[in-house]
Amino acid sequence: MGFLAPWFLAGLAAAALPLWLHLLRRHRQEPRPFSSLMFFEPRTQSSVLHRRLRYLLLLALRLVLLCLLALAFANPYFLVSFHSSSSGPVLVLVLDRSFSMRSADHLDQARALARRALSAWPSGGPAEVLALDAAVSVLAGPTTDRSPLNAAIASIQPTDLNTSFGALARALRGIESTQHRPLDVRLFSDFQRTAMPPSFADLTLPPGVRLTASPIAASGPNWTVESVNAPLQIFDAGKKRVTATVAGFNTPASSLPVSLVLDGRVLESKTVAVPANGRATVEFQSLDTPYGFHRGEVRLTASDLLPADNAFPFAVERSEPRPALLLYSGNRSRPALFYRTALEASGASGFSLEARSLDQAAGLDLSPFAFVVLSDPGRISPSLDRSLRSFLRLGRGVLVALGPFALNAGPTPLAGYTVRGEDQPPRGDASQSAVISDSAHPSLRGLALSEVKFYSSIAVDPGPARVLARLADQTPLLLEQSLGSGKILTFASTLDNVANDFPLHPSFVPFVQQTARYLGAAGEGPRDLTAGAVFDLHREGDSGAAIDVSGPDGKRVLSLAEAASAKSVTLDAAGFYEIHAPAGRNSLIAVHPDRRESDLTPVPAETLALWTAAGASSPAPSAPAGGENGHRPRPVGLYLLFLALLAALAESVVSVRYLWKKEGA
Amino acid sequence: MPASSTHPLQRFLDPAILMGLASLDLVARTVVDGFIAGLHRSPDFGFSQEFAEYRAYSPGDDLRHIDWNVFARSGRLYLKRFRGETNTQITILLDASASMGYASGAVSKLDYARFLASSLAYIAHRQRDAAGLIVFDEEVRDYVAPSTRQGQLARILHAVSRSSAGRSTAFHAPFLHFQKALSRRGIAVVISDFYDQPETIIRSVEPLRFRGNDLVLFHVLDPRELDPALKSSVLLRDMETGAAIEVAPEYAGREYRQRISAHIDDLRARARAAGAEYFLLPTDRPLDAALREYIAVRQGRQ
């Protein structure tokens, strides 16, 4: 027996505390009146003895509790004997099933090699089967039964995910730490260079793990449609442009036919000249879609190692622009001019702006609008406030731009920020710039406000709101607050060029458009994602309604229970996913494999040797043969902690019982 | 077994219940009237005019004692005999020392003693006997001279009600005062917890007996004084002297009980030896039960 942390034994000194409390501390109590003491004698010795005896159980429990705690933290261990049959090496067969293994018969080769390795492993030795792509899945074992192991090898199918050797190293470290046995790892993979983690340190294997690489031969050219740039949403008629990048890996210069396909129909075909090991861009001008969601694809015709990556899916939706409402005070319609110009600048924002004065907003039905902008509204009428709050509870958004009318108008509309007054640039400067606090926010992504001059703004007390941008003097400039599932963005300056020159800067247009998309929940349209991405189902506004997700094979991805409760879904297969959410919030998502998988260039031999050698530097696990006895420390700290918990409970019960007795007496 | 189960008419006479009654007059009436209803015998009882028996007339007997009603019905002459031919005097000595203020429950010893004194005064009032009261601790604190005047009962009850637990007990001074105030023979009733040496107590009270008085000692004790039943060691403070002693439960359960029992036995024996009657009254005992025992004993003596 020994202690892993013997210094904690000093905690045993704490046992002196209950000893002092019980035996040495003078017991004080209030005297109780009694009619006469003529029949009593002062025999306090007996009383103290009685008290000591009475609390003996409590004292014992407290001593036990403290001793157990000290011992538990000292973490004692016992040496237990073991036989080598339970500590011999485990054969770990790792089969790469990533997208690149769809190439030719690579997966079949991997299966054959794995079976061969398994059959060569001594019959009494345990083995397990792991599948590797972006993560590691344990398919069987560890077991000495060959049947489930062979079945697991046969069941492995290629996925559309990428390979991650970093994930494999993490998984092996975890397995070794839980099994406490040497691992003889055989990795069957095409060993793509792109599967290596950024840092070699991430590949570190623990002692006792020996890695043997079994590369699958992969040589030859591979072309791929690396990316497609197509509009996600189309709001007007006319043919749109689609560009695609074709890349070649280990390829000679060649001319390849590329086609634009929409809903299975070839719209246009071109031939693109791709340089050796290079990239080429092809442009189509014939994307013309009817209303609705459509499945597009840029398809490459080539004979190469990995035909599965010769097509790149994309989703597109044709719809009418959604109306947005801008309400301004009195006749100050100038902000509407700037905002409309910025919103419609690209022609692809998907919104049409309707501007009205606040006086005309009375009784207006807000439900058709995607979002609402209040330009320097001052104090809004109670009926408009109720309408806007109902509008927000539907999951919509409101942008409030504060201006001079906000002064002396009480709290700001909807969000209710306290207005502290007008904020002037410090030190007599004419203007001040702004800094983005949350650059990852969807409405501020990629923006820079450092060149924008703010001459004046409205200083508000943000309270618990999220401050997205601040002026140079730390005054909040852009704040966000939620109301139900709705979003309220408050811009503490005007949307025209009176209080700032923001509308004159290039960043105003993306600010307006990103804000519009964020507030108008425009993210519900089609999306292009990489396989393995997690898609947020935006459940905040739902009340347990089911969201149906159909996979590329047309089957439901989520069970009925999951459809009613899942917050997100992992899109791990290439193809098109259909999302059917309540209130017609449907989406079509194009999922393509990670194009790093198209680069079949293997890991340099010296790098691979370095990795496997690192594992081999530890004591090499040998195949199980015969038996060997030994001793292994078994810590018992957790058991002691459990006993301490029981002692604490018993102490509580006993002390409460004594307390009741004392009160009763 | 509680007295209420054996005497249904006395079920309301628990001392704790009597505490809720408004006045001592009401307490006394409740106790005594209920007590009378439970006797089922003659309404003649008490201290002097106690009916004894009928005896056949024989020549030479005083004709004034012939019961003519019986003669009218039966045609025979019978004499109606009483015990005590004259009204007597009862003086109640109520100990109001600090120790009498002790109460483990709702009723203190002093409360119980007040109920008892009130009931005895009421009985005397019904019998048209002269009743008086001395409230004492280490000295005489209140004195109502025995009398049969109208309003005497109210005076006694008023004196009883205003008595409160005072200082320590001393029997010598109040009894000396009583001896001086005593003008005729009668009954002296002492209600106390008798926290003193039995020898001292009897030496103080027995001169009353020498002067022809009947002496009755009511020893009022709280049940917790008879059986402290401590669950843990406690610090006890003497209500009269203020001294404090830490007492262990094993002492209270064994030696204390022996001592208090010895004290009671000694006091009872010395009282009887001095010709006095002794009654031990725990404060949880129904008052009418105590009175019943007292009457029974007194009838037996006569």
Features:
heterodimer; A: 665 residues; alpha/beta; Rossmann fold; 4 domains; eight-stranded mixed sheet; 33 strands; flat; B: 302 residues; 2 domains; 12 helices; 21% strand; disordered N terminus
Description of the molecule:
The complex is a heterodimer of chains A (665) and B (302). Chain A is an alpha/beta fold. Chain A has 4 domains: 2-29 and 38-80 and 636-664, no CATH class; 89-218 and 600-616, 3-Layer(aba) Sandwich (Rossmann fold); 322-522, Rossmann fold, CATH 3.40.50; 523-592, Immunoglobulin-like (Sandwich). Helices cover 24% and strands 31% of the residues of chain A. In chain A, the strands form 8 sheets. Chain A has an 8-stranded mixed β-sheet with strand order 18-17-19-20-26-25-24-22. A 5-stranded mixed β-sheet of chain A has the order 6-5-4-7-8. Chain A has a 5-stranded mixed β-sheet with strand order 10-16-15-12-13, with no helix packed on it. In chain A, helix 7 (334-343) links the parallel strand 17 (322-328) and strand 18. The longest helix of chain A has 28 residues, at 637-664. Chain A is flat. Chain A starts with a strand and ends with a helix. The model of chain A is unreliable at 623-627 (pLDDT under 50). Chain B is α/β, with parallel strands linked by helices and 302 residues long. In chain B, strand 4 (130-136) and strand 5 form a beta hairpin. Chain B has 2 domains: 3-41 and 88-301, Rossmann fold (3-Layer(aba) Sandwich); 50-83, no CATH class. Chain B is elongated and about 75 Å long. The chains are: A alpha/beta (665), B alpha/beta (302). The A-B interface holds A 29-44, 46-51, 54, 661-662, 664-665 and B 99-102, 109, 193, 195, 222, 225, 230-241, 243-252, 255-256, 259-260, 263.
